[in-house]
Design a protein that fits this description.
The complex is a heterodimer of chains A (464) and B (218). By secondary structure, chain A is α/β, with parallel strands linked by helices. Helix content of chain A is 51%, strand content 10%. Chain A has helices spanning 8-16, 19-41, 46-62, 64-77, 88-101, 113-117, 120-126, 136-144, 160-170, 179-196, 222-228, 249-261, 296-300, 316-320, 322-327, 338-349, 366-370, 377-390, 396-409, 412-429, 452-463; strands at 81-85, 106-109, 130-133, 199-202, 206-208, 214-218, 232-238, 242-243, 268-272, 286-292. Among the domains of chain A are: 43-298, Rossmann fold (3-Layer(aba) Sandwich); 397-463, no CATH class. In chain A, helix 2 (19-41) crosses helix 12. Chain B is globular and about 55 Å long. Chain B has a four-stranded parallel sheet with strand order 4-3-5-6, sandwiched between helices. Chain B has a two-stranded parallel sheet with strand order 1-2. Chain B is α/β, with parallel strands linked by helices and 218 residues long. In chain B, helix 6 packs across helix 8 (125-132). The longest helix of chain B has 18 residues, at 160-177. In chain B, strand 5 (181-184), helix 11 (187-200) and strand 6 form a beta-alpha-beta unit. The chains are: A alpha/beta (464), B alpha/beta (218). Chains A and B meet through helix 1, helix 15, helix 17, helix 18 and helix 19 of A and helix 2, helix 3, helix 7, helix 9 and helix 10 of B.
Chain lengths: 464, 218
């Protein structure tokens, strides 16, 4: 498969028929949804929390420059070295330079979507730096040479049997599909890496503008080890990860962990306020914070599309999306799959390349209902469809078909005629005349001989 | 029509009507959608109340018309159109205040929530109230009740494989419920599910809620 957004249609077609994949994705997303529901049902204030979350995220995106300045100042005051990167290449270069400066040839890394967006691993490895993913899911897909298929659960498309076979082949261990044993194998291997690697790279879940605190949540403690043990910690984030105040953190931690995994709080919450210092002897010698714009400041100016920047990357919209459940994450051909990916990929990256994504939805709206910061996801897809059409990306045939449809719908007589013609065609050729896109796997309903319109007309004439 | 007359209404049918414009709107063709929507507004502007047998078409009028840039005098009219348009079960239960039609039916029936009526119009209980009022009916909740059937308008033909995969999940949920009949408020979802069941040789009967209730009157 050529995993590009432009190939969505072809790839989704193959994936939708892969019942093995479908059942794995369905199982994993189903578990996450059940847990989420249990926790949310215990929180009667959930709807008001969502609204608060939405309002605060809007405030940040509307005033992104101010909050960015404030965070930068606060973080610098804490002793962090803050770098701003306009383009993706700038960010990867900054990170590479930090690693070279301390003459490290390997890094331990915790899960981070922004480093996926930067294609950081590929770039570092091309430059001779070994990258050790330490999140279990990331470790698995790194071993398999794949990319994450989900925002919070990167190896969601793999069953425990898949992982057992992978470990057997790549790690030379005897086959076992006992998750505890498999986890222990990775744990043992990673322990040495944590102790012997001099640079740790992490993402950031939230960055508080008032205190300069960066917060990372997780369940495996690998991010804690990545950010505390090595001499140098590089935290990578995009500009919209900022929240106004440390006081907002409790709200967002709740929204994020409930939505992602149904936990009221994740097992580990690291709040990092700077590197080692005289009054704080723990932690790395240097803390670098690399902040990527990557087209976001531009997007923040758009009256409608800026909403996609409110996202806190919980992955709930992926879990609940029946399209995602049917095809998994890889076919989207984007770092961000599922509903938020279909909204964000065309507007943040490339609308022409990703033009099919806004259409890859039945517009059921389950994503909008589950979003913890109330992004109007499925309506965004509608508005982006309009943009795709307005930019002229659609085929000539489709444009003509739409014009013919319009011509018909502007006259009841023409609709009536088409209905009768349809009935006649079914009468002569039978009910199952092939119609591309429909009949290969579904049947047509029988068309009525007389339309409702003509029955009503006749009734009226008889009355009159 | 019979049902509405029994409930004391005087329903009129304007034969000039065609479509609300949703297919083009959802496909991103706003100019085409706007022209058809303007035709709709022109036809219905003098109606006292507008009742729709499709939750999806009612959604188009109530939720999306206000977002469209209709031209001229029609842009003024559209607000009135929006507030006097009702999905039929919403109309019967909330406008007419009727929840018991005094009908009888014996059998296991599942109600299919179409996404537009459920998530855009938030009509969830109204059809269930009407169905529950039927004596002898066993109304079954599907285990995947709030999950889309996969129709989604042109989505069903643009991405038939995803659409069918979603439909299969729904069909399995229906089969697990062991019902005689699936009733819904949008014929398009039912057409998709029925078409899929027929092709696979699965025994499934679907009916629009008004057709179902209307047949019980006769």
């Amino acid at each position: 498969m050529n995993l590009r957004a432009s190939q969505f249609k072809a790839n989704a077609r193959i994936a939708a028929q892969d019942t093995g994949l479908r059942s794995k994705v369905k199982k994993a997303t189903g578990t996450a949804l059940t847990k989420r529901k249990q926790t949310v049902d215990e929180l009667p204030e959930w709807e008001s929390l969502r609204q608060q979350g939405h309002d605060i995220r809007k405030e940040v995106v509307d005033n992104i420059d101010r909050y960015l300045r404030s965070f930068t100042d606060a973080a610098r005051l804490n002793g962090a070295i803050v770098h701003h990167a306009n383009e993706h290449n700038d960010a990867t270069k900054i990170i590479y330079d930090i690693i070279r400066r301390v003459s490290a040839n390997s890094v331990v890394k915790s899960k981070s979507m922004i480093t996926e967006e930067l294609h950081l691993n590929r770039m570092l490895e091309e430059n001779g730096i070994r990258v050790i993913e330490t999140d279990l899911g990331e470790y698995i897909i790194q071993l398999a040479g794949e990319t994450p298929s989900h925002i919070t659960a990167p190896a969601l498309h793999k069953s425990k049997e898949d992982i057992a076979r992978l470990f057997q082949e790549k790690l030379n261990i005897s086959y076992t599909d006992d998750p505890a044993v498999l986890t222990a194998v990775v744990r043992k291997r990673l322990r040495d890496e944590f102790l012997n690697t001099r640079v740790g790279i992490s993402g950031v879940n939230f960055a508080c503008a008032d205190t300069g605190t960066i917060t990372i949540i997780e369940n495996e403690a690998n991010a804690r080890l990545c950010t505390v043990l090595p001499e140098v910690h590089i935290a990578v984030m995009s500009i919209e990860k900022i929240i106004p105040s440390f006081d907002d953190l409790s709200l967002f931690l709740k929204l994020l962990s409930c939505s992602a995994s149904g936990q009221r709080m994740t097992s580990y919450v690291s709040m990092i306020n700077g590197p080692r210092s005289s009054h704080n002897p723990d932690g790395p010698r240097q803390l670098h914070v690399v902040i990527l714009d990557g087209g976001r400041r531009q997007l923040a100016k758009h009256p409608a599309w800026k909403e996609a920047l409110y996202c806190i990357r919980c992955g709930a919209c992926l879990n609940v999306c029946p399209v995602y459940q049917s095809v998994g994450g890889h076919v989207y051909g984007s770092v961000y799959p599922g509903p938020i990916g279909s909204v964000l990929t065309p507007t943040l990256f490339d609308m022409k390349e990703a033009q099919d994504l806004p259409f890859a939805s039945s517009l059921c709206g389950a994503c909008t209902d589950i979003c913890p910061v109330k992004i109007d996801l499925h309506h965004h897809l509608l508005w982006e469809r309009r943009e795709v059409v307005d930019r002229g990306y659609k085929s000539f045939t489709e444009k003509i078909a739409m014009a013919v449809w319009r011509w018909m719908m502007l006259s009841a007589g023409r609709v009536e005629f088409a209905g009768r013609l349809g009935w006649l065609i079914q009468k002569v050729f039978g009910k199952n005349i092939p119609a591309p896109g429909w009949t290969p796997r579904r049947r047509f309903p029988a068309l009525a001989r007389r339309s409702f319109r003509s029955i009503m007309k006749r009734e009226k004439n008889n009355d009159g | 029509m019979t049902l509405l007359r029994i409930l004391g209404c005087d329903p009129q049918y304007d034969p000039r009507q065609t479509c609300c414009g949703q297919p083009a709107f959802n496909a991103g063709y706003h100019t085409d959608a706007r022209l058809v929507a303007e035709h709709f507004v022109e036809v219905f502007k003098d109606a006292e109340e507008i009742v729709s047998l499709s939750g999806s078409c009612a959604t188009m009028v109530k939720v999306f018309y206000p977002q469209m840039e209709l031209t001229g005098a029609l842009s003024e009219t559209v607000g009135g159109i929006t507030s006097k348009t009702f999905e039929i079960t919403d109309y019967i239960v909330n406008q007419l205040g009727v929840t018991d039609l005094g009908l009888t039916y014996t059998g296991r029936v599942a109600y299919h929530d179409s996404c537009h009526i459920m998530r855009e119009l938030r009509i969830v209980d109204e059809p269930r109230k009407l169905l529950r009022s039927v004596k002898g009916i066993e109304l079954i909740e599907l285990d995947l009740a709030d999950r889309c059937c996969g129709f989604g308008g042109l989505f069903a033909t643009k991405f038939p494989d995803i659409s069918v995969a979603m439909g299969e999940e729904k069909l399995e949920s229906i089969q697990r419920a062991k019902v005689d009949l699936v009733v819904g408020c949008d014929n398009s979802c039912l057409m998709h599910l029925q078409g899929l069941a027929d092709k696979r040789g699965v025994n499934l009967k679907t009916k629009h809620i008004i057709e179902f209730l209307g047949d019980l009157i006769k």
